[in-house]
Design goal:
This protein has about 150 residues and is mostly helical. It contains 7 helices and 3 strands; from the N terminus they run αααβααββαα. It is about 65% helix and about 10% strand. Helix 3 crosses helix 6.
Length: about 150
């Protein structure tokens, strides 16, 4: 009888019990990040691009001739990570490096025609992904959420 009551109690709860973890903000941020990352990965599967690669393409597209150092700094990535991503995107024919016209020690980054097309496809995927994410909130909540999350990463 006790087994039956326990089964009934468990079947009535749709959400898992987190116990003390339920009050841990970082825990919920991690769960939310996981859900957003999974959806992003599914949305971008056909393009074969990662979140960081899309961010790099987007930043270069918005800032032609940005230096590799500035790119890494803006995206808060170390030099090795930035170089690896830039190398991969260059190997795919999405960007090219040129010597900076203002400082010969720096390399400026530019999208190729294929890179522009990949960025346009990525922007369409971002629109789909953002619609999925924002559908969970009112427009006021989205604005507030962005503001609150900015406090963490700024």
């Amino acid at each position: 009888m006790a087994q039956s009551a326990l089964t009934e109690d468990n079947s009535d709860t749709d959400a898992p019990e987190f116990g003390e973890l339920d009050g841990i903000v970082g825990f919920h941020i991690r769960l939310a990040h996981g859900a957003v990352y999974r959806h992003f990965t599914e949305t971008f599967a056909a393009l074969g691009l990662t979140q960081k690669q899309v961010s790099v393409l987007w930043l270069i597209g918005s800032n032609p001739a940005v230096s590799q150092i500035e790119l890494g700094s803006r995206l808060r990535m170390d030099r090795a990570t930035t170089m690896t991503i830039v190398n991969r995107l260059q190997e795919r024919g999405y960007l090219r490096r040129e010597k900076s016209s203002s400082d010969g020690r720096k390399q400026s980054l530019h999208l190729t025609d294929d890179g522009e097309e990949a960025l346009e496809q990525a922007k369409r995927c971002i629109e789909e992904h953002e619609a999925w994410l924002k559908s969970r909130f009112t427009s006021d909540e989205v604005e507030k959420l962005v503001e609150m999350l900015s406090r963490i990463h700024e």
